[in-house]
Write a structure and sequence with these properties.
The complex is a heterodimer of chains A (114) and B (136).
Chain A lengths: L1 H32 L8 H7 L3 H26 L3 H5 L1 H25 L3
Chain B lengths: L8 H14 L4 H27 L6 H10 L3 H28 L7 H28 L1
Classes of the chains: A mainly alpha (114), B mainly alpha (136).
């Protein structure tokens, strides 16, 4: 059972990684390069997020980047003895951090939707 | 005399890690180390990014005030290095995914040079694009 779970964790890391390459590409292009030199201001972000498509990109990006990043961090921690000895605690701590970060991120996105 | 003992899988991994951190002679090891270092940097940047964006919770004035502080030449240069980390991590991640699919393992060194070159190229293009914002 544990081996199966680790397989899906590994599979998710790869799948989310490929998706992140695409989503981040869009995110960078729209935010920084499409209107190069234009200052980033509240009203600009608000306008970009009016588009349902771009809001979906940013929301999915938030979800995947939190999962991919913290899961990756877990893999790095697992390379050290300290991590291997405390992996249960570390996993739960990272899950908690992930949930809080995601919820906070959703709040931040909503600030631009009013 | 030192006692002979068999290492567990975990101990073996730790030993490999120590060796790679001390000196990477193999391209694959270099890729491994860079992938991890950039990955950890990007996770910490993620928190920083959400935190900076959260100034939007205080409304338009607080957001614009905070963001203007990060749109100086110094921070644009910092952003460019961050982009370099993203490019390398993303492209090397695709390289690893290909290997997991059983593609290109034999050409792993060549593929490393290609993705490293592409990262450098992407970085340089972004630098050129951003030059007016840095020096102008």
């Amino acid at each position: 059972m544990k081996a199966t779970r680790e397989f899906w964790v590994w599979f998710f890391q790869r799948l989310s990684g490929v998706l992140l390459v695409v989503l981040l590409g869009i995110h960078f292009w729209v935010t920084h390069f499409a209107n190069l030199g234009e200052k980033i201001v509240f009203i600009g972000v608000q306008m970009r997020l009016q588009s349902f498509l771009y809001l979906s990109v940013d929301s999915l990006l938030l979800l995947l980047v939190v999962l991919h990043g913290l899961n990756g961090l877990r893999t790095v921690i697992l390379d050290f003895r300290f991590g291997q000895e405390n992996i249960k605690f570390i996993t739960w701590a990272l899950i908690l951090v992930g949930i809080l970060t995601f919820l906070f991120g959703v709040q931040v996105l909503q600030a631009f939707l009013r | 005399m030192r006692e002979m003992n068999f290492k567990t899988f975990k101990e073996g991994r730790i030993e490999i890690l120590k060796k790679t951190l001390l000196g990477a002679r193999e391209v694959g090891m270099l890729a491994f180390i860079l992938h991890r270092i950039t990955g950890v940097i990007l996770v910490f940047y993620l928190f920083l990014h959400i935190w900076v964006m959260s100034s939007g919770l205080g409304g338009s004035r607080s957001f614009d005030e905070v963001l203007s502080r990060f749109q100086t030449p110094f921070w644009i240069v910092a952003d460019l290095f961050l982009l370099a980390a993203v490019l390398f991590h993303g492209l090397n991640g695709l390289r690893l995914t290909l290997f997991d699919l059983g593609i290109g393992i034999k050409s792993q060194k060549l593929i490393f040079y290609i993705i490293f070159g592409l990262s450098a190229l992407g970085f340089l293009v972004a630098v050129l694009f951003s030059l007016p914002l840095i020096v102008g």
